[in-house]
Structure formats: structure tokens, C-alpha cells
Design brief:
The structure is a single chain. Helices cover 48% and strands 20% of the residues. A hairpin with a 4-residue loop joins β9 and β10. The strands form two sheets. An eight-stranded mixed β-sheet has the order 2-3-1-5-4-9-10-11. The chain has a three-stranded antiparallel β-sheet with strand order 6-7-8, with helices on one face. α1 packs across α2 and α2 packs antiparallel against α3. The two termini are 19 Å apart. By secondary structure, it is of the alpha+beta class.
Length: 358
């Protein structure tokens, strides 16, 4: 038995041991039971695929035996035709198991803080930022995720200067983490009389949403300033110091929120963003120290990295990291075809990680 099969056998043994332990023990410490339950759940899909692999390998051995030793010419011929089919199925299951065995990003199941900022290109950049905001909002709705605005700063023409949202649901960060970077648009602005194509950009940042258990922030390390909100908002902006700016003194991280009329709500939203930013900084430090090869993976999370171009006259969207071009810009901008890009990014990331593990 090769080392890979031995490893798979030990995984099955461990899975069955956890099942037996959970079924036979009368009383459990709640924390221990939760830990065992999570491990059992995490191993479930791998165990299912390993059993399928072993079943197919037994089928292959039996079929090969028939192909070699059967006296019935028709059965022998059928067995010979079945062998390449089984070999292909086995190779596919092996590949799936190897992907399932890759180290998991501990943040994949978390929600995310999504930030969008208008970049170069003036009003057109702000309008494109608004288009991206709607794209992610519709995408979140399709997946049944909760989409909550934390901060929203717009101009009078429907353009967004910057916006922050919290997206909650199963596996949000695992799917959105590849969206960080510069998104470039090429199109004719509505205000352009000559029909000339303009190029502008918006920046997207995706941070894993951090709970208090992930990041402990001391009250003494915070400087909290309140001030009157600016921009749209009617008379209340002149009367209420509802806007909140929080500075985390040890890291110099600053977050300002003025979206709500309530100072308390703005503070809660600002703390949510602050925790995510501090957690992301620590995460990136650890990632850099773990992997000098991070550049080989899909996207570095660097906001200055140009990742995608949306060309409206040609109806195409190109992701530069994986050389993928799709001619369905309308479906991508309404969120319905965004998974086609994200699925390919995930596949490419897995392929790179598999190379690194060999």
C-alpha cells in the first residue's frame, strides 16, 4: 500500500473512532462535544470520497481480472472497455480528495467586510463604484446572504465615493476573498458627447469579519471622536454629533462612520470595521511569514493590484490573474454570472496549492 492510501485508511479509521465515541459516551463536556462534532462534520465529505475511491479501485481490480482471465469473449471485451472509464473516475476522485485535504483557510467560513472606493476617473469612477456595489448586493441576495451597509458616501449623481458593507452567511469570505484589488472599467460615459471611451477604476477590499474572540481590543487603546455628519441628511446633520471616528492607537488604524443618525449605531459599525482591519493586518503578517511564495497564489489581497477589466463596448469582462475573458458583462454586473469567474479563481488557487504540496 502506498503512503497516500495509508493516509486515507488512517483518516477513515479516525472518522469511525469519532463516530463511535460520540455514539457510545453517555455524557460529554459541551465544549468537547462541539469540538468532536465539528471534526466529524469536517471529515464527513473526505470519508465519503475515500470510501468511493476504495469501491472504484475494487471494481477496477475485479474488472481487470475479468479482462485477463475470462473465457467469455463478450465479457472480456466489455471489461476491457470498462477499465479506462474506471481509471478516469479513480483519477478524478483522487484529485477531489487531494483538494479536500489541502489546509483550510480558517477564515473561509466567516462573513466579510467589503469596502468599495472610487479610484481614478472622477465622476465616472464613482458611478462604476456604484455599479460594483449593486453587483455585490445582488450577488449576496442570490446566495441568501445578509447585506448590511456600514458606511455609504455618495455624490449627487448616484456615484459612490466609498462604501463599506457587512456580508454575513455561510462561506462568504471563501467566495469573495478573490475580489480584492483594482477593478477597471472601459466605457463611454453618459456625459461624453463625442462617444469617446474613458477608462476609470474602483478599488475593492474584502476583509474577513472578526468577532471579539478573534481580536481583543482594549478600551484604553481607543481614541473616540464624535462630530457632525456631513453630506446629505437634512437638518439633523447640523444638530447632532452622530458621526464617530475611532482611532486604534497601537496600530494607528482609523475608522469613521456617519451613516446612521444614532451615535451608538455608528460606533457599533465602526468597531465592526475596526476589528476586521486589525484582524486582517495580523492575518496578512502571518500569511507573509508562512509563505514567501504568496505571489504564486491567485491574488495577494493587495488593493493596488489590477485584477479585472470591464469593457462595456465589447461586452466583456477579463480577469487578468487567470487570463479568463467572458462576453456576458450584463449577467456579471447583475451578479448572476459572477460565480463563473469566482469558481475559476478558486479552481486556480487550488491547483497552485496542490503544486506547492507535491
Amino acid at each position: 500500500m502506498d503512503a497516500f492510501r495509508a493516509k486515507l485508511n488512517s483518516i477513515l479509521d479516525h472518522y469511525e473512532m469519532i463516530r463511535e465515541k460520540m455514539n457510545n459516551q453517555a455524557e460529554f463536556d459541551p465544549k468537547e462535544y462541539a469540538k468532536l462534532s465539528k471534526e466529524f462534520s469536517d471529515l464527513g465529505e473526505i470519508a465519503k470520497e475515500v470510501r468511493l475511491l476504495f469501491t472504484k479501485e475494487n471494481e477496477l481490480n475485479g474488472t481487470a481480472e475479468l479482462a485477463t482471465n475470462s473465457d467469455d469473449v463478450e465479457i472480456k471485451h466489455m471489461a476491457e472497455e470498462e477499465i479506462p472509464v474506471l481509471k478516469s473516475e479513480i483519477a478524478s476522485i483522487e484529485q477531489k480528495i487531494k483538494i479536500l485535504l489541502l489546509p483550510k483557510d480558517i477564515d473561509d467560513e466567516k462573513g466579510a467586510i467589503l469596502e468599495i472606493r472610487a479610484g481614478t476617473g472622477g465622476d465616472e469612477a464613482g458611478l462604476f463604484a456604484a455599479d460594483l456595489f449593486r453587483m455585490y448586493e445582488m450577488y449576496a441576495e442570490m446566495h441568501g446572504w445578509k447585506f448590511e451597509i456600514l458606511e455609504f458616501s455618495e455624490s449627487g449623481i448616484g456615484a459612490i465615493k466609498e462604501a463599506s458593507v457587512s456580508i454575513s452567511g455561510k462561506g462568504v469570505f471563501s467566495r469573495l476573498k478573490f475580489e480584492s484589488g483594482v477593478h477597471r472599467v472601459q466605457r463611454v460615459p453618459e456625459t461624453e458627447a463625442s462617444g469617446r471611451i474613458h477608462t476609470s477604476a474602483a478599488t475593492v477590499a474584502v476583509l474577513p469579519e472578526a468577532e471579539e474572540v478573534d481580536v481583543h481590543i482594549e478600551e484604553k487603546d481607543l481614541q473616540i471622536d464624535t462630530y457632525r455628519a456631513s453630506g446629505a441628511g437634512g437638518q439633523h446633520v447640523n444638530k447632532t454629533d452622530s458621526a464617530v471616528r475611532i482611532t486604534h492607537i497601537p496600530t494607528g488604524t482609523v475608522v469613521a462612520v456617519q451613516d446612521e443618525r444614532s451615535q451608538y449605531k455608528n460606533k457599533a459599525k465602526a468597531m465592526k470595521i475596526l476589528r476586521a482591519k486589525i484582524y486582517e493586518n495580523e492575518r496578512m503578517k502571518q500569511e507573509s511569514s508562512r509563505s514567501a511564495d504568496r505571489r504564486t497564489q491567485v491574488g495577494t489581497g493587495d488593493r493596488s493590484e489590477r485584477i479585472r477589466t470591464y469593457n462595456f463596448p465589447q461586452g466583456r469582462v477579463s480577469d487578468h490573474r487567470i487570463n479568463l475573458t467572458l462576453y456576458k458583462i450584463d449577467k456579471i454586473m447583475d451578479g448572476s454570472a459572477l460565480d463563473e469567474i469566482i469558481d475559476k479563481l478558486i479552481e486556480n488557487d487550488q491547483a497552485e496549492k496542490l503544486k506547492g504540496s507535491e
